[in-house]
């Protein structure tokens, strides 16, 4: 009985030691579990913050995209208006060029008429100048005759 009692006490001691070892392991595992929970909560909070940050960035990007689309639409409208204006200016420019060439033709025609008139005046003035010179020579002859007659009558 003593031997059995000693054997049982020895087993109880071994079981108590094993139980304490298991209890230490259990406490360590519980601490580790608690640390892991805290770590997971922190990671979850970090992920939540990251998700919020991404959502904010998406909202900003959406606003920028809408603004860019509006700007692109406005620029397209402005471009179309400028294209119409360019077409109008080209048409006006062509009209001015054709008017200018018509004006140049009219100027050329007027210059030709003026040239013809000048040539006629030159021709007429030459004959008039010849008549004047001839008349002046005749007058000189008459003056010489009169001088001669005057000289003769004095003599």
From TrEMBL:
Coiled-coil ranges from the UniProt annotation: 19-92
Recorded family membership: Belongs to the ENTR1 family.
GO cellular component: centrosome; ciliary basal body; early endosome; midbody; recycling endosome
Transmembrane segment boundaries: none
GO biological process, one term: positive regulation of cilium assembly
Keywords tagged on the record: Coiled coil
Statement: the UniProt record of this protein carries the keyword Repressor: no
Protein name: Endosome-associated-trafficking regulator 1
InterPro entries on file: ENTR1
Organism this protein belongs to: Spheniscus mendiculus (Galapagos penguin)
């Amino acid at each position: 009985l003593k031997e059995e009692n000693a054997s049982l006490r020895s087993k109880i001691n071994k079981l108590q030691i094993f139980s304490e070892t298991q209890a230490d392991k259990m406490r360590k595992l519980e601490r580790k579990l608690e640390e892991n929970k805290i770590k997971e909560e922190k990671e979850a909070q970090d992920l939540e913050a990251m998700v919020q940050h991404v959502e904010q960035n998406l909202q900003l990007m959406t606003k920028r995209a809408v603004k860019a689309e509006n700007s692109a639409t406005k620029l397209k409208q402005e471009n179309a208006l400028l294209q119409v204006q360019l077409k109008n200016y080209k048409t006006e420019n062509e009209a001015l060029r054709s008017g200018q060439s018509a004006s140049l033709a009219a100027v050329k025609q007027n210059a030709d008429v003026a040239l013809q008139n000048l040539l006629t005046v030159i021709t007429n003035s030459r004959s008039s100048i010849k008549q004047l010179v001839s008349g002046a020579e005749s007058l000189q002859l008459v003056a010489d005759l009169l001088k001669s007659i005057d000289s003769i009558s004095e003599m």
